[in-house]
Amino acid sequence: MYFDSFADFIAMGGHGTFVWMAYACFLMVIIWNLISPVMRRRQVLESARRYWRRADAENQPPSVD
After folding, report:
1. How far from 13 is each of 10, 25, 41, 42, CA to CA, in Å?
2. How many folded domains does the chain comprise?
3. pLDDT digits (tens, 9 = 90+) for 2-56
């Protein structure tokens, strides 16, 4: 498709709002798919750290003061 100006390109023949919203939604989904596993991994690792700290604390012999 050929456009006479950049403004025509943005307007997309009157359908620019829908086209650019579709691109924005697509970009948000892609970003979410990239970030979500990283955030979930951090949560799982922190949960494992808490579990092992609690398990270590329970297995410590009582201190004699």
Report:
1. 8, 20, 44, 45
2. 1
3. 889 999 999 998 999 999 999 999 999 999 999 999 999 999 999 999 999 998 8
